[in-house]
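Structural prep section.
Before we set up the soaks we want a predicted structure of the protein with iron/sulfur cluster in place, mainly to decide which crystallisation condition to try first. Input record follows.
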Amino acid sequence: MGKTLLEKVWEIHKVGSISGGRDQIFIGLHLIHEVTSPQAFAMLREMGLKVLFPERTFATCDHIIPTDDISRPFADPLAEEMMQAIEKNIKEFGITFFSPESGKQGIVHIVGPELGLTQPGMTIACGDSHTATHGAFGSIAFGIGTSQVRDVLATQTLALTPLKVRKIDIKNKLKPGVYAKDIILYLINRLGVKGGIGYAYEFAGEAIESLSLEGRMTVCNMAIEGGARVGYINPDQTTYDYIKGREYAPKGKEWDKRLQYWESIKSDPDANYDDVANFDAHDIEPMVTWGITPEQCIPVTEKIPEPKNDIDKEALEYMKFKPGQKIEGTKIDVAFIGSCTNGRIEDLREVAKYIKGNKVAKGVKAFIAPGSMGVKKQAEAEGLHEIFMEAGFEWRNPGCSMCLAMNPDKLVGDQISASSSNRNFKGRQGSPNGRTLLMSPVMVAAAAIAGEVIDARKLLNIK
Ligand code: SF4
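Run finished without errors. Recording the tokens verbatim:
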């Protein structure tokens, strides 16, 4: 009987078995940011411990950094304090920091892949829920809490409970105007926000294989929103082509050696899965959330459903929607393109392709926060920023921005945003009664232009 990628990578990185049915797993790459690391470093200091392998930890700042004025000190004293804390910690513990001055700063899940740090067959940990993003390369990537950040810093290992594997097989290719974001929203709708608890999701099938590496990252990014601890995709030529030549990618003979390893950790054709779920990409339409969890979503062409449970009733009340109401035509106040889900260069290229010659509707605040300084530089080299600004979008600096609004980018009152981020929880975008509609970046751009939710295929003539 063959093995899954998860089983192989787990076995290779297993240091030993510990209490409670858990395994101690070696972590190859540790990524940190300014919000979940200060307490972890404080705990190390209290215990008189060092970082065991400082060369395996890399830091950036993303959550609190403003996307307009990044001159120091930051206007928000708390943000400035967090920035100073990470600057002090990386110096004291000898860790590489992708600071704004380095020209490499950005959202942790965008920076790791774009610098070539994220590679197949690795175990990766980061004190952030959306770490599964890195699974797009065929790595096993865990989002962890602050005390586990401390554990990884001190021991380079984590105590983890083995996971079951559900293969999610999606046949056929996506239709025009349907994107990776629509795949993952559709899957969460079908399998539920709790459907993945106890599982790793292995995404497979023609719909996944035909995605770029960037699209694959969008799918894996939201595995956690479906309850799965980990999401991954077997590596292939698309993966290797993406990694080759990047700053931390292996070079020369080391490349050949690693390639052999990467090929060896793919799931075997006769691997045994704990569950298999089959879908057809032809059934997927551009999706829009109408509620307060990513599961509460519908194709843009459909009407808001009758409530099936208390959380649906709560969502309708919070969102001020009525069952039977069309989601298309919902007026928006804000359009946000960015985040670790959809703030990559491919997302920006796709938006620029379709918005050329259009203008943002009056009264809509539309802005784009590129995922990293690398993405920003590339977009500007291609002149994309000019297309965005000409259309009426604000062109910002990199950071998490309005994905979670721990920075000045926030909704006000009960404003509605069309957002390319990953969470539509109550208050997520900075206002306790702000309302978030998740969708693909092209759908956000279409909403910005129309001033309301609209089928981008219709408005932008996508065929
Ligand atoms: S963009 Fe959003 S989801 Fe991603 S790391 Fe930042 S806050 Fe978390």
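Observations: The longest helix spans residues 77-93.
Flagged for discussion at group meeting.
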